[in-house]
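Section 5.1 Outputs to date
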Amino acid sequence: MKKFNFNLPTSIRYGWGRVNEIGKVTARYGKKCLLVTVKSFPAMKSLFDKVIKLCIEAEVEVIHFDGVIPNPTTDSINLASE
């Protein structure tokens, strides 16, 4: 295997109203994002809709994958790539 370095810095934004920054922050990384979730359920719908709206306002295309399962198989991961 060829040698390489991998660096993945993490920025955690926490606090009241911070979700409002998601479009602007996401736009810094590109024009498309993959939003990975479990199957939709009513309690999270308003938050999900807000995230989508904020990303679209920031001109970020959202691709949604809601097929997350516990202990995912390669088949379920491959579904996300489609």
